[in-house]
Amino acid sequence: MDFIGAYSLPNVKFLLEGFLVTIEVAVLSIVFSFVLGTVLGTLRYAKIPVLSRIVAAIVDIIRNLPLLLIIFFMYIVLPQLGIKMSPFWATVVGLTLFEGAMISEIVRGGLNSVDRGQIEAARSSGLSYMQTLRHIILPQALRRMVPPLVSQFISLLKDTSLAVIISLPELMHNVQILQGHSPNYVIPALIFAAALYFIVNYILSIIARRLEAKTL
């Protein structure tokens, strides 16, 4: 093991550049998957005839597929259908679809947790279904959804490492590059990568615990 060589300024900069790509993918995927998951979860909660069943079927299919398979599909299959994406966007779209399906279940569970009595009272006071959903159900449900959502986002950040298989220059990809330069760099590089993942995920886990404590 060569810690001095592995932690030289150029190598550390190279690893941090990879981690920046990891963060960029994670942030975009979090935003897009939250929007997608909220829409899908709300559609399932609304129990719209036919549409809700179609959405439920799509969500169940995506949730039961390996994330790696979805990323492969975006990067390898779609170009054969005329839709070509870079490794970056193939990863973002794959993560968005997979995590969006997961988040939709969190959203649906949060909406279902709101007391039906409040909904009936809102409707009897003259509010429409959409007004009740917007002003009564969603604000309460969102507070209850925050802890599991943060936990899901932590999983999403870790799942970005799967993009190494399609050569996205994220953190684990750059670790492999350093390994190619010298086998003595691999363990120090992995320790450095583990520390970066741990720091970010630990901060998110602390946030999740504090938010959960506030909702109890």
Provide structural commentary.
It is a multi-pass membrane protein. The chain crosses the membrane at residues 20-43, 55-76, 185-204. It is found in: Cell membrane. 81% of the residues lie in helices and 0% in strands. The protein has 216 residues and is mostly helical. Helix 2 (9-46) packs antiparallel against helix 3, helix 3 packs across helix 5 (87-112) and helix 7 runs antiparallel to helix 9 (186-215). The longest helix has 38 residues, at 9-46. The radius of gyration is 21 Å and the shape is elongated.
Largest sheet: none
The shape, in one word, is elongated
Derived structural class: mainly alpha
Q: The CATH topology, please?
A: MetI-like fold
| Sequence stretches where pLDDT stays below 50 over 5 or more residues | none
Q: What series of H and E elements makes up the topology?
A: HHHHHHHHH
Q: Give the overall average pLDDT.
A: 90
| Residue share in helix | over 70%
CATH architecture: Orthogonal Bundle
GO molecular function, one term: transmembrane transporter activity
InterPro entries: AA_ABC_transptr_permease_3TM, ArtM/GltK/GlnP/TcyL/YhdX-like, MetI-like, MetI-like_sf
Protein name: Glutamine ABC transporter permease
Pfam family, one: BPD_transp_1
Key terms:
216 residues, MetI-like fold, 9 helices, mainly alpha, elongated
Strand and helix map with partners:
Blueprint lengths: L2 H4 L2 H38 L4 H13 L3 H14 L6 H26 L3 H9 L4 H31 L11 H11 L4 H30 L1
